[in-house]
Design goal:
Blueprint: E1 2-5, E2 10-14, E3 21-27, E4 30-35, E5 42-47, E6 52-53, E7 58-59
Antiparallel strand pairs: 1-2, 3-4, 4-5, 5-6, 5-7
Length: about 70
């Protein structure tokens, strides 16, 4: 996964997530990404301050496809 500075269009960080990221949701203080396939079906939290996966990814059912954000919740 790549973080890009929208002002300069330059790569700020490359963040390693599990295989096949499918969706991303940004919230204040966290970026969430779904991962699918190869037994790595999960949702991971990325800390935007460190550009690293925070904690262990949450294992999900087969192939999580999308995320929804609303009311301060994921």
């Amino acid at each position: 996964m790549t973080r890009i500075d929208l002002t300069t269009s330059r790569t700020v960080a490359t963040i390693t997530v599990r295989r096949a990221p499918l969706d991303v949701a940004a919230m204040p203080g966290a970026v969430w990404v779904t991962n699918s396939g190869g037994g790595g079906d999960s949702v991971a939290r990325i800390d935007p301050q460190t550009n690293r996966v925070a904690g262990r990814p949450v294992t999900t059912g087969a192939s999580p496809q999308s995320l929804a954000v609303g009311g301060g919740s994921l």
